[in-house]
Amino acid sequence: MQPMGDTALTDCSLAATLVDASGLRRPDVVMQPDMLGAVRPTRYSFNRMFLRRASADRWRVRRTRFDLDADGAGEAAYELDFGTGDDGDRRACTFVAFTRVLDEAEHTDRVIADRWEVSGCLVDGPVDEDLLAMLRSEIPRQERARLDPRVLVLTRGNRSVRFFDHLVERLAGGQQPDLCQVGDSGYIMRSTAFYANGKYGMRSFEGYPTHHPLAVPYRAQFACAWLFRELSYDVVEHCARERGGSNAVRFDAEWSRFFGLGNATGLGLVPYAFGHPRVVNAWVAVRELALAQVRALTGTPERRRRLSDWIDRARDHLGSGSDDDCSPFLSPQQVRPLLDDVADAWASTVEQELPFEGLYSWAAATAEPELIEWVVSLLIELSDLGDDTVDRWFRVDERSAPIDPSVTMSQIARSIDERWGWLDRLDLAAAEADTFWWVISDNTEEPRRARRSRLDPDGRDVAIDVALRVARLRAAITPEVADAAVGDFIARHPEHRLAIKRLATTADPYGEPRDNACAERYLPLQLQRFQLAQYGMDHYKPKSTDWLRVTLDQGAPRAADLNAGTISDDWALPIRPEAT
Asked: Domain ranges in the chain?
């Protein structure tokens, strides 16, 4: 496969590019649960793409409101200026936050909570007093809010119980953070949701004008998250000044970018991934195209140097990390020896004509998913797939194609055999294959899974049992119905309609995780980690088999960096600073 520049791909759809590309990893490798559960952020994760776009288009940030009391309770607003559009009008969005202080016992990550220390939103355009009054009334209501299309994203969160007060105390006393008290996944505040796309009356994604700066999937959410993180720094430094007076200091240059924004996520990601195969295909395909591109590159001195630098950075990043229990994932200290092995392997392949192919082939031969995906993410740092093209590929058309009623069931069976042969490896006929069913809980308003032996779904199950449905359809295509038209078959067996629709509308190579979400031993964390890595989140710390905590934008540039035009794309994998 020849190196692909943005110019060569400008007129190519993602599907056409995948057909023409060579050197891609096979779906039966990439979409295995243990591989998805080892995926890491890349330069094409949404948070890094947002910051590259902000820098390239010279967006600027201005804090337009900061009215907080000594404890950090009050109101704040940050305007993100996009510059002047083609129509001559100034374009901007505004992050508005309402803050308060809660007792530690009131902190929760649950959707059903009704009080948060930070309630915020991203609004299209500047915010006048009338709009601010509406936001002041509705935004703290969160789940009960009623908004309008001026609001793009709704978010909320709390201060970190572990870090916030420590940071205030240290800065107030004229000191930087204590290295021993700040975890490697350090954050100041932790968010729990970034609602968008029409929820509670907000603007839907289809409602964005074509050339709106945020008219790219997830761009508004990650603009909101980045500004939320900026707020967290400002609140800490404000509280430190109020407490310490003239003795207080701000974060120094090293600490001022180290902290990210915390986040916690649970089972809600699983139904999304199984329900949006074309989106999943786009996310994976971009990563696989970028990897194949880099594997085909020759080893120029500059490319060799860049990869060496990234490997060294990864080793230092992990070396400054903790040995906290991250089961079933590996802690930073457990991963560090793997990166030492990567460095040794790179030293032995660096002089090859295709050194990046050599390094990847070595990694693949280890059959160690965590090591392989670390090598993948490091290699992708050398990719030059253009952001404009990738932005376009992420705009996925999920409209369903109509089912041709004249297709015969024997044709359906052949399609299953050709594209879904991996189902045979899941032992779907076993009793434990249908242990769980999925539902939106009445009590928590969150996705949950329940054992069939304890609770009957009574028609309320969320249809993510894709593997089971397709397998049952295949078993139902007996010789007696092989020549029947699919329309007639569905009329007689409506229980198979969803499986047939899935087959008819999703032929994308990377759209289906090779797993059964209803199985006894299904581990949701693996698919969750895959999605979180695409968002750009890191430091995966599971708290059960169903949910985990992560950190976003650790080491990322700040608003001052964007305003100064000094943002670069090499900020990932930060090293924990020493206290001064």
From this structure: 6-48+271-397, 57-266, 400-544
